[in-house]
Amino acid sequence: MTCPTQPTASHFINGAYIEDTAGAPIEVIYPATGETIATVHAATPALIEQAIAGARAAQPTWAAMTGTERGRILRRAADILRERNHELSVLETYDTGKPYQETSVADATSGADALEYFGGMAATLTGEHIQLGEDWVYTRREPLGLCVGIGAWNYPIQIACWKGAPALACGNTMIFKPSETTPLCALKVAEILHEAGLPAGVFNVLQGLGEVGAALVTDPRVDKVSLTGSVPTGRKVYAAAAQGMKHVTMELGGKSPLIIFDDADIENAVSGAILGNFYSSGQVCSNGTRVFVHKAIKEAFLDRLGARLSSAVIGDPMDPNTSFGPMVSERQMTIVLDYIEKGKAECARLVCGGARLDREGFYIPPTVFADVTDDMVIAREEIFGPVMAVLDFEDEADVMARANDTEFGLAAGVFTRDLARAHRVAAGFEAGACFINSYNDAPVEAPFGGVKASGVGRENSKAAVEHYSQVKSVYVRMGDLEAPF
Ligand SMILES: NC(=O)c1ccc[n+]([C@@H]2O[C@H](COP(=O)([O-])OP(=O)(O)OC[C@H]3O[C@@H](n4cnc5c(N)ncnc54)[C@H](O)[C@@H]3O)[C@@H](O)[C@H]2O)c1
Ligand SMILES: O=CCc1c[nH]cn1
């Protein structure tokens, strides 16, 4: 079996596809069937050297272009991404197993939004003038140099663009290493950027496992590392980057709370809980997997949730009617099934789901546990699959303390009709991305990122510019300079 739209080689370096079969083979598995659809090869040390040398050499010329010129290329790439939405969505579906119903509206689209947004912003990046009597200071906003992006497997196109677009807009070059589980889509992003006029060497893609990522992170010629991945990987990558005093962005995992008060619109709250637990088969970093439901409405909430989940169309991800697909890999399926067994062993009440589906592919249906308590493993650890934990509460202060009682701090949500309470709760959340009467919206205009163990820095929005550029100040004296001797 082969995916109809797959790239022609494993890597993209200095403006061209390149293959080196000396690198260890990495099989790309279609999660809906378990079949191999492609084989890529991990980057060899020679290819890593070629990519770093090329990206370093390309950076000064790219930075010397005006922001308008750089932005025009990024915006052209955004247009091509949109024109090829179908082809890219098919590839993303084969890479991840996510239903085409989702990928055709959420993935290339989100990548194009980032290229368009940062392309538009490139010409506006300026320093400032600070008058000091007759002297003055001006600042220059300068690129960092060579940035490395390292991706997770849940949003391959989005992650490549959320990192690449602001990096390139600011005048940096980038080497992007996709997850070894979903290596295909980032290559298409590189291909499209070059079709849009990107000079060779400015955006490169190298395949490989953690050791290729580690080789990039530790290279002294790399100035910044942006990782999307788990907290354990984040700790390693952050520590390695610190040895070289490199800039970092860490977009890591979460175990986010979603609080549903007794005055909430139940239908909307159920929608939020579904979007925050079962979109992308639960493989979204910001998911609100600890759903605190006020005791007074808990059974009504669970009844409506069960009814709505029974209408999920689980099946062939390429069928446009399918709304729920498989887990990304057999490994991830096993991890999630282990957590489900822990939930059962801890005597949480299994409301629906709870076992692998009897069909080919890595399918676990939407799974809901009720009567979950704060100390249960399924309420404390990130599962990264379609498993919702429903916990009871009665008092606002109590539920806020419980919601924040976690090492993570990526996202949080609240459903209530009381707007004063909604804003009070949002202010009290220890989380980077909060939602009121909604869940998991991630527009490019809004900062995205976590606090506590969930990360460092922000992607998207004007905030991302701070993480891909640095400010130089220049003091200008207008008169004579006195000295003590
Ligand atoms: N905060 C966010 O924006 C965000 C978005 C998506 C996913 N995630 C998180 O990602 C995780 C799931 O993705 P995953 O399983 O691919 O994560 P992971 O941490 O296993 O791997 C992430 C990436 O890091 C690379 N890597 C592993 N070890 C490395 C090392 N020592 N040095 C450099 N690179 C290394 C991997 O090859 C992969 O490309 C979840 O925890 C999820 O919450 C976070
Ligand atoms: O997976 C994390 C990033 C994200 C959140 N919503 C869409 N993408």
UniProtKB/TrEMBL annotation:
The active site is at E251. Gene3D superfamilies: Aldehyde Dehydrogenase, Chain A, domain 1 (3.40.605.10), Aldehyde Dehydrogenase, Chain A, domain 2 (3.40.309.10). GO terms for molecular function: betaine-aldehyde dehydrogenase (NAD+) activity; metal ion binding. It holds the Pfam family Aldedh. PROSITE patterns: ALDEHYDE_DEHYDR_CYS (PS00070), ALDEHYDE_DEHYDR_GLU (PS00687). InterPro entries: Ald_DH/histidinol_DH (IPR016161), Ald_DH_C (IPR016163), Ald_DH_CS_CYS (IPR016160), Ald_DH_CS_GLU (IPR029510), Ald_DH_N (IPR016162), Aldehyde_DH_dom (IPR015590), BADH (IPR011264). It comes from the Bacteria. One of its GO terms (biological process) is glycine betaine biosynthetic process from choline. Its EC number is 1.2.1.8. Keywords: Metal-binding, NAD, Oxidation, Oxidoreductase, Potassium. Residues 20-474 form the Aldehyde dehydrogenase domain. PANTHER family: ALDEHYDE DEHYDROGENASE-RELATED. Belongs to the aldehyde dehydrogenase family. This is Betaine-aldehyde dehydrogenase. It comes from Roseobacter cerasinus. The gene is betB.
